[in-house]
Amino acid sequence: MAEKDDNLLKKIISHAKEYGFIFPSSEIYDGLAAAYDYGQNGVELKNKIKEYWWRAMVQMHENIVGIDASIFMHPTTWKASGHVDAFNDPLIDNKDSKKRYRADVLVEDHIAKVQGKIDKEVTKAEKRFGDDFDKDQFVSTNQRVVQYQEKINSINERLKNSIENSDFDALKALIEELEIACPVSGSRNWTEVRQFNLMFSTDIGSLADDSSKIYLRPETAQGIFVNFLNVQKSGRMKIPFGIAQIGKAFRNEIIARQFIFRMREFEQMEMQFFVKPGEEMDWYEQWKEKRIAWHRSLGMDESNYRFHDHLNLAHYANAACDIEFNFPMGFKELEGIHSRTDFDLKAHEEHSGKKLQFFDPQEEQSYVPYVIETSIGLDRMFLAVLSGCYKEEKLEDGSERVVLALPPALAPSQVAVLPLIKRDGLPEKAREIISSLKFDYSCNYDEKDAIGRRYRRQDAIGTPFCITVDHQTLEDNTVTVRDRDSMEQERCSIEELKSRISELTAMTNLLKSL
Question: Which residues form the domain of 503?
């Protein structure tokens, strides 16, 4: 079980602001809670994460295409999807701290603490028995671990029943029985549990009445479902096929916190994969493997990832899991993979009166496809990359540096060109090199401060390569190329720069590893 590292999160928030990745929204007016702006380096990193997802999902698959649906949709869309009636969070307040929490999350955090006790027992046993350790046997036979697991199962069952039946008295009773305390005050003085709908509503047109009420979309998936037939027919798509989309979504989160992990305005990268009924579980397993491979290709420590199977399934799902990442706040959901059955298309059929089916020419029959969904929060992915690549290093000479060890293909600037001094024709030569490279790579020019300070600045924003122009450059047309991670330097001719940089920073390298 990962321990929270609030200090690391504070460092990342500070680093993100200092180096132009993320700023608080409307900061000159004291900011707006749970809203952030991506700065000059942040927007570059964000766009490259999007590009890598899009190319891996759409470009690399012949049977997956993309769309960009409108944020505004007909209000019946959200009635059909269940969001109008069921898109609610169970909230509870602590009377002493005046803090508000999601009641189900309080219980889930308690379960995580019990799971942490199991993990500690397993770790101790692994050290004690060494290579002879059989984890499965230990977990199923150790009396203490078995009791912990039985407790988890019991809590999960009660939580599931209270949520499914909207039995908020039972949910509060569970919180009280488990003696769950407010993380801020330590008090167990709770209010009743009540529901809160998360959708933002607004008015469209000139009249503010019930007929003009619409919603900002709380997810991007419905834009894909309502366009199922448009894409299938215009693209002559055959089952199985997928539709991908990157777009903004909006949720009126009462408890938006933990930096960009949970915000009211956020961006999703989703793909809905339409399959023949009965084949959904095979595709569900395939997409689990494809998605974890995509994450691992970025080169961050593999121990940062784990799968978490849902015990409490959404009403539309017959299987669901999360890829969790070890954020500074501990393991949290990064991406969801869900088998959504045929719920969405059938619901839109019912509410629209239009058939949303696929005619299978081989079986000579029409059917409503089942859907496998992969859904990742772009902002959460950004935070995962930022926190997973943030490193504080002590060097051999006793000095320290902060480096963002980003995959070169995702770095905001892939190359920094630095004249050693600001005279003797070196800045002019550096500008020539920038002019030749900027068509293919994101470049950064920096001539302020001593060269060592400039190297540290580029390390902090994750620039993989620094090209230093010195007096020898004017003599033999060579430059010094410094590697961010090893800090090693070597001479390279200007003519070879493009091929050298391309070999090391191309996104193709990541795609080929999938």
Answer: 396-512
